[in-house]
């Protein structure tokens, strides 16, 4: 801690700056003045999103590493840009640092940020550095660009559209449950446990997939990223578009790790798929006639996309068609909500 005191606010900012290697051609002025200055192309929208993370609420320093925390803090913002069909360009960070945090922690945190910035060509163009009385506080704002005719919002879903999801949601929530309890109590192989923990601590924002969709001729009608849980985020689409949805239990993607670990530990697989949060997968709808086109396009992609259901005209109603043929209504509050408790 002595080191941090010696550096002071401005020494610390210089040190943060020295970790950041990516320089954006869009940026005229970055860290070091009162404002960052940048310009964007004609024919594009600038899209902006911000997310706050508070120690004990969003992360536990005992369960992650500073590098992974830096990566994830930015990854969740990148995911919001991907959900609109855009490409991230610049980021800003406000950080509240408690006395107890070491300089080593902050160096590693910025190394994590730098790494993901370099991977996705994002320049961290400024921020604010303050002391926090107790907990670490991180707020990241991200700016991206999207071609005006490629913007994907939540509100465009129409009855008859197919619903798709990338990847295999559910692993992150299981990873968190595993991390937060005694690991030895869990049955199953270390390899699978590590995999679901990784899904939680190091989610991959689906930029590649979003760009594939943006470039495709298939008519994507709406998109959202899954931060709170598949069903809860599907409700967001349904509410924005005043439609309903039917999900097909049999079609839901179930990762082998999730299948195995829920089975040997007596947990409900489908609950994790439907309600587990923090997957940062993309949930999107498209014109039913284009469903095959998208499936073909993703056939050889690293990340699968799966058709999981259909949009209906029953406004605000989301149901699950079970494997036994029965129809079960799904609740909006399945999944994570800050002012309620967590399921599963
Ligand atoms: P001001 O007092 O004008 O707000 P600051 O002293 O807070 O300026 O910040 C100086 C410069 O350093 C600004 O360009 C700001 O964006 C940048 N900056 C401050 N904190 C951070 C940080 N944690 N990471 C990256 N850049 C930062
Ligand atoms: Mg300031």
What does this 3D model show about the protein?
- By secondary structure, the chain is α+β, with helices and mostly antiparallel strands.
- The chain has 2 domains: 4-150, 60s Ribosomal Protein L30, Chain: A, CATH 3.30.1330; 162-329, Phosphoribosyl-aminoimidazole Synthetase, Chain A, domain 2 (Alpha-Beta Complex).
- It contains 10 helices and 13 strands.
- The chain has helices at residues 2-19, 66-83, 103-120, 171-179, 190-201, 207-215, 230-241, 256-264, 269-275, 291-297, and strands at residues 27-29, 37-38, 44-54, 87-98, 123-132, 137-147, 162-166, 220-225, 244-248, 282-286, 305-312, 318-321, 327-329.
- The strands form 3 sheets. Strands 8-10-7-11-9-12-13 form a 7-stranded mixed sheet.
- α1 runs parallel beside α3, α2 (66-83) runs parallel beside α3 and α2 (66-83) packs parallel to α6 (207-215).
- The model has no long low-confidence stretch (mean pLDDT 93).
- The protein binds adenosine-5'-diphosphate and magnesium ion.
């Amino acid at each position: 801690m002595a080191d941090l005191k010696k550096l002071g606010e401005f020494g610390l900012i210089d040190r943060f700056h020295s970790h950041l290697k990516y320089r954006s051609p869009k940026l005229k002025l970055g860290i070091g003045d009162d404002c960052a200055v940048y310009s964007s192309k004609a024919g594009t929208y600038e899209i902006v999103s911000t997310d706050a993370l508070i120690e004990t609420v969003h992360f536990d320093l005992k369960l992650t590493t500073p590098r992974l925390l830096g990566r994830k803090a930015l990854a969740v913002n990148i995911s919001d840009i991907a959900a609109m069909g855009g490409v991230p360009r610049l980021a800003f960070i406000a950080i509240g640092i408690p006395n107890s945090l070491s300089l080593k922690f902050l160096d590693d945190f910025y190394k994590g940020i730098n790494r993901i910035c370099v991977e996705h060509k994002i320049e961290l163009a400024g921020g604010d550095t303050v002391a926090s009385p107790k907990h670490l506080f991180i707020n990241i704002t991200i700016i991206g660009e999207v071609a005006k005719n490629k913007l994907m919002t939540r509100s465009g879903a129409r009855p008859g559209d197919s619903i798709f999801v990338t990847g295999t949601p559910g692993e992150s929530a299981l990873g968190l449950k595993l991390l937060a309890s005694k690991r030895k109590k869990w049955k199953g192989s270390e390899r699978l446990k590590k995999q679901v923990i990784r899904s939680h601590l190091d989610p991959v924002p689906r930029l590649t997939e979003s760009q594939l969709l943006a470039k495709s001729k298939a008519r994507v009608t709406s998109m959202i990223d899954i931060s709170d849980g598949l069903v809860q985020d599907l409700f967001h689409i349904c509410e924005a578009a005043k439609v309903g949805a039917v999900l097909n239990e049999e079609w839901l993607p179930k990762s082998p790790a999730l299948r195995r670990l829920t089975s040997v530990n007596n947990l409900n697989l489908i609950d994790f798929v439907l309600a587990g949060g923090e997957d940062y997968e993309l949930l999107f709808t498209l014109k039913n006639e284009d469903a095959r086109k998208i499936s073909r396009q993703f056939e050889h992609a690293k990340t699968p996309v799966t058709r999981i259901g259909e949009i209906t005209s029953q406004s605000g109603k989301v149901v699950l068609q079970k494997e036994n043929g029965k129809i079960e209504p799904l609740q909006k509050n399945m999944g994570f909500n800050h002012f309620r408790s967590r399921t599963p």
